[in-house]
Amino acid sequence: MVVGSGAVIEVVGVGAGGLSSLGELERTLIAAAEVVVGGERHLGMLEPASGRDLVTWPVPLKPALPSLVASWGERRVVVLASGDPLVSGIGSNLIELVGAARVRVHPGVSSAALARARMGWSAEASAVVTLVGRDVDRLRRDLSPRARLVVLMAGERGPVEVAALLVDEGYGASCVTVLGDLGSEDESRIDGVARSWDGRLTPRLYVVAVECRHDGGEQVGRSLVPGLADDAFEHDGQLTKRLVRAAALAHLAPQPGDVMWDLGAGAGSVGIEFARQHPRNRVYAVERDPTRADRVRRNARALGVPGLRIFEGSSADRLPELPTPDAVFIGGGATASVVEMAWQALSPGGRLVVHGVTVETEQVLLAARLTHGGALSRISVDDLEPIGSFTGWKPARAVVQWSVSKPVAQTNSAEREDNAEPEDKDG
Q1: Could you tell me the pLDDT band of residue 380, with boundaries at 50, 70 and 90?
Q2: Average pLDDT over residues 141-157
């Protein structure tokens, strides 16, 4: 957050109809501004005026934003943005930087609302997926046979990438609509089907509406309920199996916006499913084997959570670099020192789950339970398999699971340390 104070920054959302669509208050603010900031398109709407600086956004924006905002000082500043500045917009960045008290947002009609209006979709029966500045693989998480998705994105190849992803996921029959220049006189609409979508011209400003239709066959939609099939993950055998994984996630209890550590990630299955529970969840996986770390990255992309962060190395070495967790899973390398480091780092009310399959790890977990409490369980799963012309039960290796919640502080505690994402030094 920028140190110091300054004048309130007025952020005005402008629709495709231009300044004429604004109310009297917003037009007055712009006329009285000493600094007007925006993209070239927005600034091009203004008539020249003496004593008023017009500033275009720097590229790249985020690294330069703090010094730019500090340079405004006490001058009257108006920021022009598209539609609702709090929908993947500059309003969110400014509030994060200087605080809500210094930013006053005047929203216009968002592109998502206009898209729903054109499609005839209610807000309750559709979902908005933001891919602005994000990987298109993020969309994989939200696909289901009857989903209606309003996809916010940029770039001329956006619709082509969405269509290709739908086909790859078995949703080639989905209806794809590209809505261009919403709210303007040049508004356009292009309808098609994902599997036959071509490289047709894309408007500069657009929203993609997707009505998901599954192709059928063996490839089925993935549920968000914990416990994806084991074959949903690429792995070399180092995988927390489906039923045991579901039990771990039940104790980890993901909540929207949680930060989670997946230590000794293996194939990354527990962390990936934690991340899939809500778009705001942030997962940091630590894996010492570079081959497995690459596999975690591929699994995360394939399952719709490309933002999952991978740190290569030992857990003991990498933990100091990670933000304070709300949940920690240790699936490999559960030494007494790593377990204790995770417990100390865990936020009040946080959840810790540790798995072990060796007697040595079981002894570590017995000692941890004596110190910190919690529950200790042995999970054994038998699967029915062929035995010649007959069938019989084949037991999997039993897993010892320690699960515990850290007590919530009863007195006012220090402010929780900043959860800004750390730099991934391994790329």
Answers
A1: very high
A2: 94
